[in-house]
Amino acid sequence: MAPTAFITGITGQDGSYLAELLVERGYDVHGMVRRSSVERFDRIEHLRERLTLHQGDLLDQRSLVDALRASRPAEIYNLAAMSFVAVSWVQPTLTAEFSGVGVTRLLEAMREVCPEAAFYQASSSEMFGKVREVPQTELTPFYPRSPYGVAKAYGHFITVNYRESYELRATSGILFNHESPRRGLEFVTRKIAWHAAAIKLGLIDKLPLGNLEAERDWGYARDYVEAMWLMLQQDVPEDYVIATGVAHSVRDCVEVAFDQAGISIDDHVVADPTLVRPAEVDHLIGDATKARERLGWEPKTDFEALIRLMVDADLKRLSR
Ligand code: NAP
Ligand code: GDD
Fold this sequence. Notes:
Blueprint: E1 4-8, H1 13-24, E2 28-33, E3 51-55, H2 61-71, E4 75-78, H3 92-113, E5 118-124, H4 147-166, E6 169-175, E7 178-179, H5 188-200, E8 207-209, E9 215-216, E10 219-220, H6 221-231, E11 240-242, E12 248-249, H7 250-261, E13 269-271, H8 289-295, H9 303-319
Parallel strand pairs: 1-2, 1-4, 2-3, 4-5, 5-6, 6-11, 7-10, 8-13
Antiparallel strand pairs: 9-12
The structure holds NADP nicotinamide-adenine-dinucleotide phosphate and guanosine-5'-diphosphate-alpha-D-mannose.
The site of guanosine-5'-diphosphate-alpha-D-mannose has 23 residues, from helix 5.
């Protein structure tokens, strides 16, 4: 019989790639979706007939228990979160509820319905914040710099705590930034790719940006969902850093994107102080040695190829 997987956040960037991967591997894939006055399932539209969707919300315990009862999963991937760092200063308590306490709600639902399942928590390199060592590993202490990072640190530690308290097969994947043509338009790589394409096509003229010097370890989301799946195939649940081991600045991202679009930076990029964050994460770079050695995982797509494929995708989309 096909194994069953349950994904929260299935309508998001990672949820859609993970659903694709699991469907390809013969899983019976269930996902949790939130009710909205306008249905926005664009990222999973192509998979709809092969998915079973349940209404639910990380704020609502009843809905989590019922969704797990209806799907009876062997693997649970908790990808749902308020994932945009900048907005976490605007909605700090809601962010804590979604991205922090929501993890406890789902773990409690799992304990009640399917304690034997394997559980994946979508933890984040944002937890390293003002970094304590370079590069960051599974053992680097956290120093989060945003309400989002603080909420994710809670989500990470409650996952570790439930593993140790109740012997759950719970794993926390500490993933560094990962992007794709399905990335939300508010995140910097997609914003840059979209603007580069739109400027090239004469649709707009300016790209407003905040801190151009921030550095991130950017990988491709399609590669990273493979690591999530590999983590849940291990006999012993442990935590893993997933990263490329190479950092680039926002400025580098603009240079590659504009080069791909064939336009000049000087004429279009404008500084917008309102986009500078109250507290910044200046430099993130991960060491994924443990994942390479234990999971056999390696990133397949480098930064430059990633940004170029994102610009091409937006050029194609906007040309239609
Ligand atoms: P995303 O595109 O923003 O997707 C977030 C998903 O969470 C969406 O499906 C959203 O549903 C859902 N969601 C939000 N609040 C919810 C709630 N209260 N109840 C139920 N569902 C809710 O994020 P992503 O980039 O795919 O990231 C997936 C996960 O990995 C997130 O937890 C994120 O924090 C974490 N992460 C991401 C990265 C990265 O670089 N992408 C790195 C490290 C960790 P709607 O469609 O209804 O809004
Ligand atoms: N979004 C955005 N927009 N960021 C900008 C801009 C802009 O106009 N200008 C400069 N930046 C800088 C931000 O200040 C930040 O230092 C960097 O670009 C990356 O910002 P985001 O793309 O918004 O990503 P993030 O690093 O804050 O968060 C992402 O990665 C985390 C993992 O480290 C999100 O996906 C989080 O959910 C994820 O956990």
